[in-house]
Amino acid sequence: MDIAVFGAGYVGLVTGTCLANLGNNVICVDIVKERVENLNKGILPIYEPGLKELVEINTKEKRLSFTTDAKSAIEKSQVIFIAVGTPQSDNGEADLSYVFGVAKSIGEHINGYKVIIDKSTVPVGTADKVTKHIDAAMKTKLPFDVVSNPEFLREGEAIKDFMNPDRVIVGVGSDRARQMMHKLYVGIERTGKPVIFTDVKSSELIKYAANAMLATRISFMNMLSQLTEKMGGDIKEVARGIGLDSRIGPRFLQAGVGYGGSCFPKDVRALIKTLEENDCDASILESVDQVNEKQKMHIFHQLKKFLPNLKGKTIAIWGLSFKPKTDDIREAPSLVLIKKLIEEKANIHAFDPVAKDNVEKIHPEINFGKTPYETIRGADALVIITEWDEFRALDMNEIKLLLKTPLIIDGRNIYEPDEMKVLGFTYYGVGR
Ligand code: NAD
């Protein structure tokens, strides 16, 4: 199939590249000229394991190309993905201006029947609005369908998740669009993965419901971790105990530093807005958001319990991205901690395997280490914010020697409190 993908960010780039790898001809369109020029040179705007290699193979095979020319991409394609950002606007709603910008372009340049796919995360009812924007921009009326096909990939696992998803959700309103979508995903369906066809509005809501449910699980455990910290007990044991219940399952039950990233925070808030606008109760999700904001500050407060005066103290941070295997720092809990440490005039040493450059652009004053060990030399405390695998099996004796005081604030519970005690550390783990 001939496919255009608008937006060459995490979702657009992964979608376009994986569809090219399945044998389609894909043109990725972005409005940022530098991003397109770099992609044409093989330089990717994001770090995502395996993506660079796939982009290289598929551009070489001429199945994948990058452009800023929306008109020719629209004219050449039967299927057009909208995969642009839907950031949070000032009042908490999803900002749909980028989505509508693409819709307008499609209306202006449409030259025959097309299926337009909302892959961006968009509130219920957006497909209708996209239809109106396309209609309004069309000079000559031509047939088209707008389909909802939300994306569930996880950064760091994006290619695997796209090629091997738990399910593909497709919301369609016409048989013609359904047939095109079936053709598009036949390669994935053949591997036994369910492609679920549903109505457009259910599909739009499924995406928000999934993220809101996962965020709720995290905030639920963070809330209980406050109790185990006060009353005793170990939140990891609680998670294990309930996770073995087949009705609950073990995932997304880890207490920690609060969720961040480009999706959960904004999607929870956007769903709250949609519920409120429709006179529905949003109190569960309001609490989920509030618990999360408090949890992001909790690590800082714990550090202050051990070091009440942070002025002039050196604090080492391991992990800056909002989760491992990505360089994405959008709404990362590390940024909340960094801001507080700067306010308190502490010196910050930090290490992250891939997110350093993104943080350095905002905080050039931080002293970045090349290795976890180098970063903690002479530090008054080590705070762990992201659970990169490489922090799990380091030489703890070496760490103790390098730190000025053997204090570890483990925001991800990657170490065991008893073992740390035996090793002579002062150790805090969340809810333990
Ligand atoms: P991103 O910011 O990484 O990329 C968006 C891209 O769209 C940018 O490169 C931007 O320049 C481009 N763009 C903006 N307007 C454009 C236009 N008119 N024409 C062409 N390109 C344009 O965003 P992302 O993380 O890929 O997210 C995209 C959407 O997918 C969002 O709605 C997000 O919520 C959703 N989503 C993201 C993830 C994730 O893990 N990042 C997962 C699932 C869903």
Plain-language structure description:
The protein has 432 residues and is α/β, with parallel strands linked by helices. The chain has two domains: 2-198, Rossmann fold; 233-429, Rossmann fold, CATH 3.40.50.720. The protein contains 18 helices and 14 strands. Helix 1 (10-21) links the parallel strand 1 (2-6) and strand 2 (25-29). Helix 5 (97-109) runs parallel beside helix 6, helix 10 packs across helix 12 (264-277) and helix 13 (283-306) packs across helix 14 (333-343). It is globular and about 75 Å long.
Topology (elements, then pairings):
Layout: E1 2-6, H1 10-21, E2 25-29, H2 33-40, H3 51-60, E3 64-67, H4 70-76, E4 79-82, H5 97-109, E5 114-118, H6 126-137, E6 144-148, H7 158-163, E7 168-171, H8 175-184, H9 186-189, E8 195-198, H10 200-231, H11 235-243, H12 264-277, H13 283-306, E9 314-318, H14 333-343, E10 347-351, H15 356-362, E11 367-368, H16 372-376, E12 381-384, H17 396-402, E13 407-410, H18 417-422, E14 426-429
Parallel strand pairs: 1-2, 1-4, 2-3, 4-5, 5-6, 7-8, 9-10, 9-12, 10-11, 12-13, 13-14
Helix pairs in contact: 1-3, 4-5, 5-6, 10-12, 10-13, 12-13, 13-14
Bound molecules: nicotinamide-adenine-dinucleotide.
